[in-house]
Amino acid sequence: MITPTPAIILLSGGLDSATCLAIARDQGFAPLYTMAFDYGQRHRHELIAAAQLAADGAVREHRVIRIDLRQFGGSALTGDAAVPKDRDESQMSAAGVPITYVPARNTIFLAYALAWAEVLDAPNVFIGVNAIDYSGYPDCRPDFIEAFQRAANLGTKFAGRFKIHAPLIHLTKAQIIRRGTELGVDYGQTHSCYDPDETGAACGHCDSCLLRKKGFEDAGVPDPTRYHA
Amino acid sequence: MITPTPAIILLSGGLDSATCLAIARDQGFAPLYTMAFDYGQRHRHELIAAAQLAADGAVREHRVIRIDLRQFGGSALTGDAAVPKDRDESQMSAAGVPITYVPARNTIFLAYALAWAEVLDAPNVFIGVNAIDYSGYPDCRPDFIEAFQRAANLGTKFAGRFKIHAPLIHLTKAQIIRRGTELGVDYGQTHSCYDPDETGAACGHCDSCLLRKKGFEDAGVPDPTRYHA
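^ Those are the sequences you sent over. The predicted structure of the assembly is below.
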């Protein structure tokens, strides 16, 4: 790419968003801007991982937006309920919208990304949503992403230029890990566990850990995750 | 209405949202929940007005959400540029997207309302946007509101039940004032000025004051606004 084409990447610090960042760089977007959200998560390890990933040389600026989703209640991720452990995939999907769902989270995240996009005039936003491995979150579905993009184009100066890139949306966890490994992502830097210990070591038993472990196995890639003893 | 039908009203403290609150009550929605945003406005008078309006007996809960839009820059309302004064309506509309536009503001506000709506299971949200008197804001247009509603239904558990009510969208300022006056709104409690003095008295010269003044004149309703000497 000759002309600089900036992009904003929603960077949670997890495996998916780290891969998204690598894909945006590989596709030639530059400079890159990353955005993380401090939304009253139970633990800070995700935010620390995001900051480390953003220390990548291709990132011009990393912003942490503090938003208080905890005041709305209603999710295990913000401390209102226990994180489920050792469920198999049929249990995860049979449960419908998971207890770890945070109300309207991706809508709020994309709204903030849109605001920053408009100020930077950077109408390309990357989000690491995935509809395959874990389809219980309604705000990870392709039709939601398309509908939000349409609303965003109507509600801003972009008038059609705003584009949400969701390059992982149809990939399995194993495919994501293989793609990221090709692009040099250090997954040891990423954090996925819903319930880590105080050192940031993963529990190995929550839905997120189980899907991640299985992803590395299926991909045939060594799992660099540090688990509790 | 026999069954309680709760609604959330985005309440800025201005004339429009105060009228919206009265319309929601008149339409039989109950209980009512109101939501204001502290987004780094230049002044606090709007938030004080919102809290006073929410002291209305029909409001079960008033929430003030602190969000930092100022860090994105780009608007006279958050202190980055001078508020324009004494423009006529042709100047206001000729200027395109006005300097008082805050990037993606209504998208962010509606995203938070959606989160609260999902937690309360209260899928009716009222917003006082208006496309007639001042059409320079892209996020006040009916097609944006419809597109956001569609995205919200896809991205949450509501699956079609979420509805954004924008009862003022096709009304002139004078029609809004007449409707609110019929419903008993005390417009002396509302705040519209972009550049008030420290006591909260309106400047009388910014776009918002000029449109408001003209609205009272056209409606034939005495203007209760307190202006600077």
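Chain A has a mean pLDDT of 87. The beta strands of chain A are 7-10, 32-38, 59-66, 124-126, 163-165.

Shout if you want it in another format.
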